[in-house]
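WARN no homologs supplied; continuing
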Amino acid sequence: MEVENTGETFTIRLSPKSSAELAYHVEGNLIFLDSTYTPEEFRGKGVGAKLVEAAIHYAKENGLRVVPVCPFAIEYFKKHPEHNDILAQ
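OK structure emitted
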């Protein structure tokens, strides 16, 4: 699964007519993970996690701290405490 960063979303094209997205915005040195969407037929297959991991990678590359806002991102960080060092305090 290839993740594309448009500057406002991380996107994974799942089929010609379907994609999953993580919308975000940056303020100063913080990246806010605002919302995620994965089409129902692709849920539970690691697509959302791939999007959050792309955001984490982007944050590390750009010296940003992560603020998970959407419920999916919040749950991701609860399940993956190894990434808590990137979270904003």
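The first strand starts at residue 3 and ends at 5.
OK
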